[in-house]
Amino acid sequence: MELIKGRPADETGRLEKEIRVYDLLDKLGMEYYRTDHEPATTMEVCNDIDKILDTLICKNLFLCNRQKTNFYMLMMPGDKPFKTKDLSKQINSARLSFADESYMEEFLDITPGSVSIMGLMNDTDNHVQLLMDKEVLEGESLGCHPCINTSSLKLKTKEVMEKFLPAVHHEAVIVELPRYDISE
To answer: Name one Pfam family in it (predicted).
Structure first.
């Protein structure tokens, strides 16, 4: 695996939704680095990707309320544990759970294992509210998939907040999730 600036030179065999991500990032004038890899389905692969990107790789969780009327994408540091009670209080939504993958595909045009902030470009009706852990904003850059888990991107956090999110008509709600001692 290597880190390459910008989009792939040869886009043969790449999915349309991945190419749309590169098209949007280029249109917005955003700088990004990319690495291609086997599907990121194991922690070993993810750890290798982390080393190549040399940035915070975000864990992205697709959640909903019990009634399945409110949907959320939570971006948080990959090494931070997630407990629904910590988030529920902050967004006034009891009984959060993982949303069905059918909603993920319908709203974000992504499949399990590929959840990424880039999917918000496909959520033109704003069904999904972005929730971002405060720690994500502390890094100069962040890592995410371009809507497919066989590539990973390194983006400047400031550009994601100031260029990407306004372009896709989404705002981040900043939440603060605690870190727990191993003993908890």
So the answer is: tRNA_edit
21 contact partners, CB below 8 Å, separation of at least 6: 118, 121, 146, 147, 153
pTM for the full predicted model: 0.91
Distance of CA 33 to the CA centre of its chain: 15
Return the structure tokens found at 156.
């400047």
Residue 12 has φ and ψ, to the nearest 5°, of -60, 130
Q: How far is CA 168 from CA 28, 47, 62, 154, in A?
A: 11, 30, 18, 19
CATH number of 8's domain: 3.90.960.10
Full residue range of the structural domain in which residue 45 is found: 4-175
> pLDDT by residue (tens digit) across 67-106?
999 999 999 988 888 889 889 989 988 789 999 999 999 9
Residue 107 domain-assigned (yes or no):
yes
